[in-house]
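for the recovery benchmark. tokens below, seq after
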């Protein structure tokens, strides 16, 4: 089953999560290697390497940043069109969720 992505202002819903309530799982082991983040999910026995864009999204999700704040940061770092950045954020968060890397802080 695919993920449902609904836009509601700065809040974007991905399945049961929104960017307002989604946070990286606290039980993941995270290492920075050569500028990339590497996430170790011991429960699922998986390793994930994040590219530069996904690293920024991950770090800002950890801080509880809004979709708008994440977009502003990516725009300043990568100088891409805002519309493209917003779509990239949604895609990245969908990927994080589908990999089981996020938890709902509103539960």
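predicted aa per position
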């Amino acid at each position: 089953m695919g993920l449902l992505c609904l836009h509601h202002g700065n809040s974007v819903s991905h399945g049961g999560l929104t960017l307002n309530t989604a946070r990286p799982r606290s039980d993941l082991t995270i290492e920075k290697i050569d500028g990339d983040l590497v996430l170790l999910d011991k429960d699922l026995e998986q390793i994930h390497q994040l590219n530069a864009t996904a690293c920024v999204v991950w770090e800002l999700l950890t801080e509880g940043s809004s979709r708008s704040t994440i977009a502003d940061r990516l725009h300043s770092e990568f100088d891409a069109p805002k519309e493209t950045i917003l779509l990239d954020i949604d895609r990245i968060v969908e990927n994080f969720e589908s990999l089981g890397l996020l938890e709902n802080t509103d539960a």
